[in-house]
Amino acid sequence: MPRDLSLYRHLRTGGIIAYATESCFGLGCDPMNRRAVQRILRLKGRPQAKGLILIATDLAQLQPYLAPLPAGLDVAAYWPGPTTLLLPASRRCPRWLTGKHQTIAVRVTAHPDARQTCQLAAMALVSTSANRSGQRPLRSAAACHALFGDTVLVLPGRTGTRRRPSTVLNPLSGRVVRQ
Question: Which residues have C-beta within 8 Å of that of residue 107, sequence separation ≥ 6?
Fold first, then answer.
């Protein structure tokens, strides 16, 4: 699918979007744009040390952020779907994405709107819940407009039926970080 040039330009020039995901609306931006990532962290009141999740249409969009995967690790067994994996980050992966971690949280989403957004943007996207830290995630475009106003480009869409955020796990250790 060809990229949407207006969405691509918005993201490449530091724009932030709100878009529907599996359980809520998410805030996203170009992961390689440090200024945009910092704006999201300020909007949310979230510390950079926590790190952020990236979503994508396929593994290829995530490859620039990942170290080579260990032989025998089959990420396709988890994706597409609502499972976020903690995988070894590439040395080129920016600290503003990984925070204090040596891993990067990544997911190939199955949500149709989020998948289409990554396809149209022609990139993986930062994906963090659209809310201020400690508050309930927003579940509608109207709620995103009310909270963020014109500081965020709100894309139309419907959230999935999932009530909880994605499961986060480290497939190398088997440790579940968030159920």
Answer: 53, 54, 55, 56, 79, 81, 82, 83, 84, 85, 127, 166
Angle at 17 between CA 14 and CA 22, to 5 degrees: 140
Pairing of strands 103-108, 83-88: antiparallel
Cis ω for the linkage preceding 156 (within 30 of 0): no
67-91 residue pLDDT tens: 999 999 999 999 999 999 999 999 9
171 vs 73, 91, 143, 151, 177, CA distance in Å? Answer: 8, 20, 35, 36, 11
Q: What is the pTM of this model?
A: 0.93
Do the beta carbons of residue 118 and residue 110 sit within 8 Å?
no
Is the per-residue pLDDT at 2 higher than 50?
Answer: no
> How do residues 100-127 score in pLDDT, each as one tens digit?
999 999 999 999 999 999 999 999 999 9
Q: Which of these, 125, 133, 137, lies nearest to 164 by C-alpha position?
A: 137
d(CA 108, CA 129): 16
β-bridge pairing 53-56 and 103-108: parallel
